[in-house]
Amino acid sequence: MPKLTIDGIEIEVEPGTTVLQAAEQLGIEIPRFCYHERLSIAGNCRMCLVEVAPGPPKPVASCAMPTADGMIVKTDSPMVRKARKGVMEFILINHPLDCPTCDQGGECDLQDQAMLYGCDRGRFHEEKRGVQDKDFGPLIKNFMTRCILCTRCVRFATEVCGVPDVGAIGRGEHTEITTYLDRALASELSGNLVDLCPVGALTNKPYAFSARSWELRRTESIDVLDAMGCNIRIDTRGSQVMRVLPRVNEDVNEEWISDKSRHACDGLLRQRLDTPYVRRDGQLRPASWAEAFAAIAGRVKGLPGGRIAAIAGDQADCESMVALKDLMTALGSDNLECRQDGARVDPSVRASYLFNSTLAGIEAADALLIIGANPRWEAPVLNARIRKRYLTGKLKTGVVGPRIHLTYRYDHLGEGPAALKEVAAGRHPFFEVMKHAQRPMLILGMGALTRADGGVVLGEACKLAYAAGLIKPDWNGFNVLHTAAARVGGLDLGFVPGRGRGLADLLADAGTGAIEVVYLLGADEMDMTRLGKAFVIYQGHHGDAGAQRADVVLPGAAYTEKDATYVNTEGRVQNTRMATFPPGEAREDWKIVRALSEVLGHRLPFDTLAQVRSRLVQVNPVFAGGEVTHAAWGAFGESGTLDPAPFLSPIQNFYMTDPISRASATMAECTRVFIMAREAQGTGTHG
Amino acid sequence: MTEHANHQNGVEPATFAFAPDYLRQAEQFIAKYPPGRQASAVMPLLDLAQRQHGWLPRAAIDTVASMLEMPPIRVQEVATFYSMYVHHPVGEHHVQVCTNLPCWLRGSDEVVRACHDVLGVDPGSTTADGKFTVAEVECAGACVNAPVVQIGDDYYEDLDYETTKKILEALKRGEKPQPGSQTGRQCSCPAGGPTTLKKVAPATGGA
Ligand code: SF4
Ligand code: FES
Ligand code: FES
């Protein structure tokens, strides 16, 4: 291991460490533009110059310089400072210096570093170059004259997104960053380019000119638009969410988020339920909380518990689900369901519904079978991890399901359950690939589990996990990829029907009238016509399918407006934090259930968030939080006949999957540009 | 602003395909590289496409990209980096004047002036009869004999106003002037003849 001295401090580093990384380990910050720890090294901006001895008598780029034994590095000598000043002067030659009108102002690497290394006047009297703006699509605004050609965006699109459509064309002063043929960048991760761009060349288009970074209040929270639980920062001004940014969490999202997580936030302002509603004469009319509760009490009181059902939607938080579960139990009902899509996951074995390998575990996997999932749309950031592993050359991937462009190569084993059966029975060559792998894993998606024969598919997957050696003492390669943020939490706290029943039974009962009251806790992704004549209570934040069908609407809070618990697909318990208040009369969800319980004469025994949370822990100790725990393995799934129909992803349009993204104008624009235009051309991820 | 990003010159063909003998040569180039490394053949293929078509249309970039299994933008990066690839129709004689530092120090301004005087056009334009296109290019890699002009496949070196004028006039008359140094220098020997190794008989030939 090389031992070197940086600014007089000795340090021993792993072989292959660069000088810049070694300095970072010592807490010495070296300015940089092109270097980014998650991208390949380009070494083209020269801002990171340092003095190295022994070596040539000139400054060297520390980001591209491997450490060597006995090296003496100076990061702040007069020579270094002079060299960096020179680099800065060159960079600024062609930069427009338009910080007052630039959205990056206040959070710009170039601005910050110019404060340290910039001159107070320019010596370049010739004309600056101008560069035509390009089309990066509906999410990225560009102002290419500001570009300093660090190529981070090129490397990100190529390496992380796997959509190599960004490039640097031309040469020397005429170099320009562009997308191929000036077309919108068709990646679900494109918004991250804005974070990566060290200057204001690529900025957030929907947010353009709407706020300055120093006016914003930051709240650290969790994303719930897919089941990954990406860590986010919500930037608000007053009562409005201005933008959503990723937070670093190496175990979950590294530092990326999907375009939906980032850009659906304008949907938080539209179609909101900000007051209770009660249906009178066939019309939903605004009402007070007391009137709404009275309407519910009038219908529910005296009804036998078995005639009431509750269905939790994809963004329901654990606090409100446990409160509703307790209320339903008090009313004598066990008709609970958190699987509004009818997913046949088995709530009794926790390992059967978790992403057991963990998200970070993907980086250890060497064989992967994807069954009935489109990770690129169901969890784009997870897909980026698979791609990252794929790029190391150590991962062999097979897919059973639709043939889609996943950004990495895979063997397509078949479209439907027949192929899965072949593999599970050891008759397919991919079985051997998995069997001989050290860390084999499978990902079972909702496309496979939400079918009527989902339980049998689950059984086959379980069989395969045993047979191909996916379950080892220190490794569990059985993974379910959920699409709903609420799902694992709901299963963990047992928000499922008793007596082995399922969604289909509840809906059948509603259809026949055996169930008379249905409580939808933010459930919008189901066929409302199947609720028959039932009296429907909808608690949620958007006027979507559920509210339209409802007889009473209780306005709840969106994920940005409450302190709430969610469990991600790997079983990680995380909390959102209230960034803004719910609009108008809307309230935090568990409080609504708590208030209603009192009206219904079954007062729930908690008054504070802490009390609800201790109730959660009482129901299931996993809610105590902490590190993701290993779930015990057991047999699960059903046996029976498989429907030969091909697996289909439950997501037909990545940009619109829930009430928030459906209300978002930005997501509507993305749908127009990326989904509709491509469908018209017959290409795209389903091509 | 540069125009290499948008192939909007009104003459872009919708498709491009290699003619049989060009295709055969392209396949020979590809075969030179080990499997999985076909991308190494990108420059010769682009050159072939340009020879076939006279210039390099966008459709040819797509064709080369799919032949080599490269993302089209990677091919476009290569094709726009080198000034030897042209993205719009050019005259019969493509006069590429190097104006990079060594050539400039050695008088490339005079060469540009000669082009203007003889052909009546400045860099970036084509003569009305479509015979000559004058372009300003980055280092042509022959700085030792600066200033340098590349016309078609030939280099004309050690130029000044007069020699440039002579060459262009000869081309105008349909003659083919002798390429290479215009001062009689042999290869890149020091101007005025060798200063070392004088006893060794110099090899014959060379431009
Ligand atoms: S657009 Fe931004 S990220 Fe891309 S090269 Fe320019 S400065 Fe770098
Ligand atoms: S950060 Fe080292 S050259 Fe850009
Ligand atoms: S500078 Fe003209 S050939 Fe190199």
Topology:
The complex is a heterodimer of chains A (687) and B (207).
Chain A: E1 3-6, E2 9-12, H1 19-25, E3 49-53, E4 60-61, E5 72-74, H2 78-93, H3 109-117, E6 140-142, H4 152-161, E7 166-169, E8 176-179, H5 192-196, E9 202-204, E10 217-222, E11 231-237, E12 240-246, H6 259-263, E13 277-280, E14 283-286, H7 289-300, E15 308-312, H8 318-331, E16 336-337, E17 367-371, H9 375-378, H10 380-391, E18 396-400, E19 411-414, H11 417-424, H12 429-435, E20 440-445, H13 446-449, H14 454-467, E21 471-472, E22 475-476, E23 478-481, H15 487-492, H16 503-512, E24 517-521, E25 535-540, H17 545-549, E26 552-555, E27 564-567, E28 573-576, H18 589-599, H19 609-619, H20 659-663, H21 665-681
Parallel strand pairs in A: 1-5, 15-16, 15-24, 17-18, 17-20, 18-19, 20-23, 24-25, 25-26
Antiparallel strand pairs in A: 1-2, 3-4, 3-5, 6-9, 7-8, 10-11, 11-12, 13-14, 13-26, 21-22, 27-28
Helix pairs in contact in A: 8-18, 8-19, 11-14
Chain B: H1 20-31, H2 42-53, H3 58-68, H4 72-81, E1 93-98, H5 101-105, H6 108-119, E2 125-126, E3 132-137, E4 149-151, E5 154-157, H7 161-172, E6 180-181
Parallel strand pairs in B: 1-3, 5-6
Antiparallel strand pairs in B: 1-4, 2-3, 4-5
In short:
The complex is a heterodimer of chains A (687) and B (207). Chain A is α/β, with parallel strands linked by helices and 687 residues long. Chain A is built from 21 helices and 28 strands.
